[in-house]
Amino acid sequence: xxxxxLEKSRLTLLGLGAMGTALARAWLxxxxxxxxxxxxxxxxEPLAAxxxxxxxxxxxxxxxxxxxxxxxxxxxxxxxVLAGADLxxxxxxxxxxxxxxxxxxxxxxxxxxxxxFLDGGIMAVPPMIGVPESGxxxxxxxxxxxxxxRHDMLAVPAGAVYVGEDPGxxxxxxxxxxxxxxxxxxxxSHAFALLRKEKDVSPKEFAPLLTGWxxxxxxxxxxxxDHLESGDYTRGVVSNLAMMTEGNATLLRTAEEQGVSAELLxxxxxxxxxxxxxxxxxxxxxxxxxxLTRYRTTEPxx
Length: 302
Ligand code: FVH
What we know:
binds ligand FVH
């Protein structure tokens, strides 16, 4: 232990899966005294060798530090792990992936037990943690006072981005970003499927063209944001819905020619065609969002 370590605050981490272990290593490397606990004790051994204190139970781990971070499989495991712990006066930071409703319910649950609460959404995979140049960040929402008090520790594993007092917002932003990523994965899968049977096309030569194109198109998000905030879905449109919907026929026909299923493309194309049929050919694709958000008339139960 160095003098530097003595000056840094202790924290507790519950959950030492792939992500929890990466977080633990980042805090230890930054010199923070760390107490860890994991359901399967063997996973704590490498961290003990690096200086972590290993608690025998989750309740003991919670008792060891004012700041308690959770990185578990899901919300149900969070409830199970904390069931026997005294949370009075603790700052709980839950980095377990969940839904916005779960984040809000967990915040109420923590408050009832005397703890301040922040929910988090990790925008990184484990190798990006503790690597400042990786672009990793963690979304936080809930107690602003907790975020401000603990900011230095929260910023150790990845950038710390606070998105609001509503404890559901971190999960909402997280899932929105992951959903956009899922759409990108779908598009990339379709693109490579189109090329697959051409033995003279190298996937590795195509990959830089694909990433360059996706990067060039990414600012599309700013245009959509401007449409939504202004209410004018035609503003700045350079490729309108009428033209793009016409272009869809070529995408579908090429899929057919290449022997590729169009099932990843057609749901979005169907929405574009519905919006066009409603008379919005001079817009971009922003109107698809109106169709998506109108589909449900009742709120889900929490
Ligand atoms: N890994 C990733 O790429 C992503 C990136 C974005 C954020 N996620 C979320 O992080 C949470 C943890 O993910 P993980 O990668 O650490 O997941 P695993 O390696 O599967 O470890 C799961 C840990 O949870 C423990 N656990 C599961 N169920 C229970 C339970 N009922 N009681 C107590 N602990 C439980 C498990 O313990 P063990 O199996 O070792 O005993 C692990 O510690 C997650 O929300 C991701 O969505 C990661």
